[in-house]
Amino acid sequence: MNQFTPVSSLVGGVLIGISATILLLFNGRAAGISGILSGIFDHQGEARSWRVSFLAGLLIAGLVGALWGGEPHQAVGSLGRVALAGGLVGFGTLLGEGCTSGHGVCGISRLSVRSILATVTFIAAGMLSVWITFRFQGGLS
Amino acid sequence: MSKPNLASLVAGLLFGAGLVLSGMTDPAKVIGFLDVMGDWDPSLMLVMVGAIGVHLTAYFLLIRRRPTPLLVPRFHLKTTQRIDTRLLLGAAVFGFGWGMAGYCPGPGVVSVGAGSLGALVFVAGMISGMLLFRVSTQKREEPAKVDPTFDSTCG
What we know:
The complex is a heterodimer of chains A (141) and B (155). Chain A has helices spanning 6-27, 33-42, 46-69, 79-95, 100-109, 113-135. Chain A is globular. Chain A has 141 residues and is mostly helical. The two termini of chain A are 25 Å apart. Chain B is built from 6 helices and no strands. Chain B is 62% helix and 0% strand. In chain B, helix 5 packs across helix 6. Chains A and B meet through helix 1, helix 2, helix 3, helix 4 and helix 5 of A and helix 1, helix 2, helix 3, helix 4 and helix 5 of B.
């Protein structure tokens, strides 16, 4: 457990919680990134521009993080596998109507049973996926 | 920039900052949390605890009883409590993809901003998967007449 970073995890989490609170209190929207991103294709005008603004914030935060801390973190695995992973995430988050932020943070915070179940499911699936991809018989290469 | 867009931008900046600070933009760290059979890193759990701790409290104390948000006419929150195969299958497919690369939508986008090629490939794949979903559901339903006030996704 030498990678465990309790303080920065909690502080980062608090920032995320504040962010979600701002978006809900001011804009009346759930900070679920899969919905925000996919909603850009679905909507126009104001319903699109708040989404673009939020995503711009994410991108800028990433840029500042990279300027501050050096190179971005390494991706894990081949680009082909990463692309496939992205496909599954894209399809699954729309089918399941949410992701780690939408269900995991926003939905659970509102005590949505639906989101609690979805979150348990995607965490379990993630754990199975890591086992299969990386651990089982040495992992897939 | 309109006030709602400014609030949204600020929210996005804070969200991204939280992800970067906690290391959630590092796929290896996320995989470390999901790696229950290996060298387990509980950090992601604490990120969720921090986020839910703040947001749940704020929701129940500040937001739930408000009739309207501060800058826009109404809330756009899902009211359905429908639990069905779509929800659980979708979550399973998402979770499986999440474990394969250690990216989910938020960290993926933030990492594109950081200049990660892997994240760019991930996000391209993600957008493809989303478009594939849209196309596959449109065949069975009416061509989407999207109600601009209804959010079909997110919690």
